[in-house]
Structures are given as C-alpha cells and as structure tokens.
UniProtKB/TrEMBL annotation:
Transmembrane segments: none annotated. Residues 25-355 form the Enoyl reductase (ER) domain. Pfam families: ADH_N (PF08240), ADH_zinc_N (PF00107). The lineage of its organism: Bacteria, Bacillati, Actinomycetota, Actinomycetes, Kitasatosporales. PROSITE patterns: ADH_ZINC. The keyword Protease does not apply. The keyword Chaperone does not apply. Residues 26-35 have a biased composition (Basic and acidic residues). It comes from the Bacteria. Its cofactor is Zn(2+). Keywords: Metal-binding, Oxidoreductase, Zinc. This is alcohol dehydrogenase (NADP(+)).
Length: 360
C-alpha cells in the first residue's frame, strides 16, 4: 500500500444524505459535507448502500453516544468512480468500486504494513467509514448518501460479474465471514458449522460451500432450512432441540458464530473435534462465560475475527466474482430506512437490506 496521505481539504461540497440527527432519533433526509477530492482522493457516485446491524447500534447510541451527530451511517458502499485526484493511479472514472468498514488507517504500524488495516495499532487507528475522526479532523460520514470521497488506497474493485446491489453487503458481511473461513482454512475435507442464518450467516454458507467445505447451519429453528440448503448448506439443525448437541458432538473442525445473542459457549465447544476452533464474529451485549475445561480437555480454541484488511477484502471480492457469489438482498428506497431498521431488529429480512442511492 502506498504510504502517501491525503492533504487536509480546505473546500467542501454538500450532497444529499440520510442521517440520524441524534441518538435514537429516526433518520431523516438532509445534506452532508464532502471534501473536494485531493491529489490521491476518489469521488464515488454511490449506487447502493447496505444496511448493517452495526448501523442501527451506532445510530441509536447503543455502542456509546460520543456526540458525533448528526450521523450518516453506512459502510457497505457500492458505486462508480465519478472523479479522481491528479495523483490517483489505482482507479479510473467509470470503475465499479466499493468501500467497506474503514476509510483510512495509520499506514505505518506492523499490522497496516502487513495489510491488516482492520487491526491498526497506530495513533490514527482504524478510521471507520462513519462516526470516526479522520486525519483531516473531520468526522466521517457514511454511505447513506449519493457521493463519498475516499483515499484511493481504501477503495476496492468490484468484479463485473457481481451486480452492484448484491456486492454492497460483501464489503462488510462478506469479508466478515471470508476472513475467518480463510484464516482457519475452510475447504475440502473440513466440516464447518455456521451459527445463524442472517445477514452474516447466509454469506458464510455461500462462501464456505464455494471453498469446498462440508457446511452445516446451526439455527434456532428449522424455519429457514429450505433457504439454507438452497444457499449451499449440506445439513441444517435446530439448536432449540437438545438432541442436536448430542447428535453433533465432536463433529466440526470450525464453527463460526454470527449471532449476537447470549449462547452457551460450552455447549458449542462440545461440537468441535479435537483441535477445533469456535470463532466469534457476532458481538453480544454482555460478556459470555466459558469453562476452561471445555477448552483444555480436547485442545479446542475460542477465537474472534473482525472484517478484513484491504488486500483480503479485494481477495474476497475476486473470489465471489469467480464463484458467482453475491448477497441475498431486498432493495429499498431511502424513505424506507427507518422501517427497514425495525424489520432488521425483528429478524424480518432475507438477508440484507440495500438502499437504492438514486432515491436519496
């Protein structure tokens, strides 16, 4: 990654957006300032923006109200390059591009140099696509808008084989599952379980299946079983049935937990083979207890994973392009955002809402 930094912008322009004016307030149409593209900046005309559960947590101040309101959420952005700065070499006008969960990082720490910008340990840190303070001192505003300006190094290429609306959720949900599946080597001969078949889980099923793993969905009920099998699962079990944990004991090499609910982690660790790993990508509100004996008795591991760096995210997009993978989406108009938030909370979406930016 090039180590240049975009110069602080001195001029701005306003573009239409949907923002939360304060914590817990309904989102409303407004305008947001975007900096004029600097030498290494790219202006993106946003076509689609996915709705992530993190957007809801942040817009409602559930992860700490830091005063960054009004706030424009959105970190699943797919669009087209509208203009580039004079020094941009990685992208051209007309390119299909995406922006994920962060738009900058320190670029100097060991993690950044290794392409693991999501784990940046530098002073600037991982600069979130919204609600964070960038190197120019401005609070970042996300993808529920018509345009965004981002440094060229933090923009991804979207393969032409993926429709842009289906590509948007890949920038968060897709990479959140691809990263642990790759790191723990899901593939032929591996038995992988995905806990939960929602916005994250359905991507896990698609990707693990494309990697060649034997895939099992562990869901609260069998309500979505037909969907799970259609998306690539080989097996589907209800975790509300106690017999599931007896039938599947010592079965899996890897379990990826996508849900944010409180689970009996010891019970899920019991489903792992010797040396297996349970990876947390969902984040419950409260700490979860784990018995040390559940780990040491069979050399099992409990781990966590968070999105991916720029190189791995590009790798994920290329993988999805090659395998014909996109998110299962429900396209909505911007005025339906608040309704969509309520439906997400009610688990009434299959499997990702995506905003048509042309309606903002």
């Amino acid at each position: 990654m090039t180590t240049h930094t975009s110069a602080p912008a001195t001029t701005h322009t306003s573009v239409p957006a949907y923002a939360a004016p304060s914590a817990k307030a309904p989102l409303e149409r407004t305008t947001v300032r975007r900096r004029e593209p600097g030498e290494h900046d790219v202006l993106i005309e946003i076509k689609y923006s996915g709705i992530c559960h993190s957007d809801i947590h942040t817009a409602r101040g559930e992860w700490g109200d830091d005063g960054h309101f009004p706030l424009v959420p959105g970190h699943e952005i797919a669009g087209v390059v509208a203009a580039v700065g004079s020094g941009v070499t990685r992208h051209r006008v007309g390119d299909r591009v995406g922006v994920g969960c962060f738009v900058d990082s320190c670029r100097e720490c060991d993690n950044c140099k290794a392409g693991l910008q999501q784990y940046c340990t530098g002073k600037l840190g991982n600069v979130g696509t919204y609600g964070a303070t960038g190197r120019d001192g401005e609070v970042t505003q996300g993808g529920y808008s018509t345009h965004v300006v981002v440094d060229e190094n933090y923009i991804l290429r979207i393969p032409g084989s993926i429709p842009l609306d289906e590509a948007a959720p890949l920038l968060c949900a897709g990479i959140t599952l691809y990263s642990p599946l790759t790191h723990w080597q899901a593939g032929p001969g591996k038995k992988v379980a995905i806990v939960g078949l929602g916005g994250l889980g359905h991507m896990g099923v698609k990707i693990a299946h494309a990697m060649g793993a034997e895939v099992t969905v562990l869901s609260q009920s069998l309500r979505k079983e037909a969907d799970g099998l259609r998306l690539g699962a080989d097996h589907y079990y209800a975790t509300s049935d106690p017999a599931t944990f007896e039938t599947l004991a010592d079965s899996f090499d890897l379990i990826v937990n996508t849900v944010s609910a409180d689970l009996d982690l010891d019970a899920y660790l019991g489903l792992l083979k010797t040396g297996g790993t349970l990876v947390q990508v969902g984040i419950p509100e409260r700490p979860q207890p784990v018995s040390s004996f559940a780990l040491v008795a069979r050399r099992k591991s409990l781990a966590g994973s968070m999105i991916g760096g720029i190189p791995e995210t590009q790798e994920m997009l290329d993988f999805c392009g090659a395998h014909g993978i996109g998110a299962e989406v429900e396209l909505i108009r911007a005025e339906q955002i608040n309704e969509a938030y309520e439906r997400v909370l009610a688990s009434d979406v299959r499997y990702r809402f995506v905003i048509d930016a042309a309606t903002i």
